[in-house]
Amino acid sequence: MSLKVRIAKSVVMSKVNYVKEDPDTRLPEILDWARRFDVAGQFDAAFKTFEPIAKDKNNNWNKMVRSMLKETAPACMEKLIANLAVNTELASMPVREKAQKKYGCNIPWAILMDPTAACNLHCTGCWAAEYQKTANMDYDLLDRIITEGKKLGIYMYIYSGGEPLVRKADILKLAEKHSDCFFLSFSNATMVDEAFAEESARLGNFVLAISVEGFEKETDMRRGQGTYKKVIEAMDLLKAHGVPFGFSTCYHRYNTDVVGSDEYIDFMVEKGARFGWYFTYMPLGKDAKTDLLVTPEQRSYMYRRVREIRETKPIFVMDFWNDGEYVKGCIAGGRNYLHINAAGDVEPCAFIHYSNANIRDMSLLDTLKQPIFREYAAGQPFNENHLRPCPLLDNPEKLRGMVERSGAHSTQLLDEEDAVTLTAKTEEAAKNWAVQADALWEERNEKMKQQAQSKDKQQAH
User: Per-residue pLDDT tens for 24-49?
Assistant: First the structure.
């Protein structure tokens, strides 16, 4: 790490500690302090965005910041700033860009990987259900992936599974060894206990995105009787120890109205969630329940709802599909992230189970050059309408073509589902969503056009 980066971290942390003592007075002070460095006015728009956050105590983001400053364990606050903000974003970006030019392939911002395919639950419609349950990546292999990733400028590592906390000793050990990285794990949270919460608070660089499908009825419907109560107990433990966490919710035909409601979001905020990741149901595997696919109306509802929540609630929420406009379409295939399953197969996405390469046989860099990843790089974005970003759910013909041209094989060992069979399940949904998505995209573009015209008029005066 350069001296410049170390100094930046030290300065930022000193300012955080300063604000912590009196956030009401000192948040606006910090904004004014930072503004003095922007002599050329390059970040004027950003400062205008942050001004109400810093100065209006009734602003939802102001409430969230003050709450985090008050309730977050010291090590967690330090790592959120030093690792998540500085290392994974600012310091590593030039390294990734340089590597991308040098090697001629996508270099992702984050790596999603499965320590194990084993799980203590049997959830209906699980996207990982078709993997071989005995598959595991041992500690040394996980360590190698992270070590090689850091050389390419990758400092964000996300765990999925299976249930990652089946391997909680190893993943906490990795968080301690790679203390300059930030780790997040999707988890059903049923294995969270006092010792785990204490260790997470000590390390500071490991957080959970807790899987929950709504309230008790909706969660237990897919995850099994009694799961919801264990989830709530886990949230209470983490909050008590000052460990940040979020929720991860799959919205489908039978729970969308619940998980998009004010009641649900307010409850998640009350329990201590700082962020929420929404994703929609994907029909993977021979036993996939296509009746769980959302209707176009439900997906449109979530598009509007997520934006409302971001403007009114003290929590940051995102929708992997409906937020495509902010990241210019699909982020998979190494563009922003990739997925390595527990058998070591390197896949473009957690929901796209096709691969030409296995991490056990080659370096991380070489897997990024595999044919299916090059197909992704050549095809992205898969649609000019970024509300139709996905090559499976929104543009199934694109996925069929990429798999065929790349010669990638199915990594679902239990059924080896081919791309033709898989995409047949999403054809109708894609066609139906296109109508509403195109209308939303046109509405969004018109709104942006009006905002630009208004800005031009203001500048003219």
Answer: 777 787 777 777 766 667 667 767 77
Q: Rounded CA gap, 162 and 318, in Å?
A: 23
Q: Which tokens belong to 427?
A: 């054809």
Angle formed by the axes of helices 23-35 and 3-21, nearest 10°:
150
- Tokens (6 digits) for 127: 């996207």
Band of the pLDDT at 18, cuts 50, 70, 90? confident
Of 349, 350, 352, the closest CA to residue 423 belongs to 352
Strand 110-113 to 337-340 pairing? parallel
CB atoms within 10 A of CB 98: 13
Q: What b/e string do you get for 217-227 counting C-beta neighbours within 10 Å, with b at 16 or more? A: ebbbbbbbeeb
- Say if residue 2's pLDDT is above 70: no
CA angle 57, 45, 301 (to 5 degrees): 70
State residue 50's pLDDT score. 77
Q: Rounded to an integer, what distance in angstroms lies between the CA atom of residue 14 and that of residue 259?
A: 38
Report DSSP state, residue 355: E
Q: Is the dihedral of CA 173, 179, 183, 189 positive or negative?
A: positive
pTM, two decimals, is 0.91
Token pair 């860099």 is found at 365
Residue given tokens 């409906």 in the structure block: 322
Question: Per-residue DSSP letters for 110-136?
Answer: EEEE-SBS--S---TT-TTTTS-TT-B
Verify cis geometry, omega within 30 degrees of 0, for the bond prior to 204.
no
Distances (CA, A) of 225 to 127, 181, 239, 258, 331: 20, 36, 24, 19, 35
Higher pLDDT, 165 or 17: 165
At which residue do the structure tokens 């049997």 appear? Answer: 122
Of 121, 113, 117, 164, the closest CA to residue 143 belongs to 113
Of the listed ranges 91-100, 120-129, 222-231, 436-445, the least confidently predicted one is 120-129
Alpha carbon dihedral 144, 146, 152, 155, in 10-degree steps, equals -170
Q: With bands split at pLDDT 50, 70 and 90, how would you rate the model's confidence at 400?
A: very high
Q: Using CA atoms of 34, 38, 42, 44 in order, give the dihedral in degrees to the nearest 10.
A: 50
pLDDT at 460 over 80: no
